Amino acid sequence: MQISSGVSFAPSISATNLAAAAPPNSLGTPEAGTPVSPPNSANQPVSPSTQLDRAQSGAASANPDIKSDNKADQTSDKSVESEQLEQDVELIRALQSRDTEVRNHERAHQAVGGELASAPTYSFTRGPDGQRYAVSGEVKIDVAEVPGDPAATYEKMARVRRAALAPAEPSTQDRQVAAMAAQKMTEAQAELAQQQRDELQAEADLRSQKRDDMKTEIEAAREASELAKTSESESDEDDNMAFVSVAERFAEYNARLRQINETLLRISSPPMTPPGALLDEEA
Fold first, then answer.
1. From CA 121, how far away is CA 32, in angstroms rounded?
2. CA distance 136 to 7
3. Of the candidate ranges 20-34, 137-151, 191-205, 247-261, the one whose mean pLDDT is the lowest
4. 32 contacts 77 by C-beta, under 8 angstroms
5. 166 closest CA partner among 187, 181, 153, 186
6. Using the 8-state DSSP alphabet, how is residue 65 labeled?
7. What is the pTM assigned to this prediction?
8. Is residue 42 pLDDT above 90, yes or no?
9. H helix runs in the chain, sequence order
10. Following DSSP, what letter does each residue of 174-229 receive, concatenated?
């Protein structure tokens, strides 16, 4: 993409060579046909050139209209040359002004664009003085988007826009580049907003997933706790039942043991004689 100084400079003044418009040499010399003073002495010899001058002077005196025409032609030539000189001077000033304007314009683009902008290039024309003057120019600037990075694209397009509008009087091309950069800024901003929304949604989904995982873990822990309590209760019941069974068996064992002891005592002890029975037998 190029941002340029606009329409090429095309002055209406003719670019005639300045050397051709220089003051004529005749302005500093006597005009042809001007009478020459006669010699001081009539007896002084007269040179052939003097005789020719006198002859021309006499002819001019005899024909005054010829002399007037010559002076008019010379005056007309001087007027044309003077007018041409003024036009050339005016053209040079216009070219100098345009050269300064174009260079400042392109330098403004390049200064703000920085590494995004190329060095200015110019188109030149030659003035009446033989010098080359810049009449138009351009600066190439990078307007490519940054792939996958809308934030960087936004910053880049903002700089492109500033570079396009940097000159004091932006051209039509400059304004077109600025408008294009503004459009890309809007697109990058929308893409950035969508990207941020996607990131926020991803974070929300992650938090929701974490909450679900935590809830699942809590439920699993709660079920494990209930199962442990149930197992412990069943174990306690089993222990109680086992304790009762052992006690019963121990009581039964003790009862049987008492019966055995009683039987052994009856067998080992003699029968008891009632009182008075022995006396009755002896008697």
1. 54
2. 7
3. 20-34
4. no
5. 181
6. H
7. 0.51
8. no
9. 48-62, 64-113, 150-164, 172-268, 277-282
10. HHHHHHHHHHHHHHHHHHHHHHHHHHHHHHHHHHHHHHHHHHHHHHHHHHHHHHHH
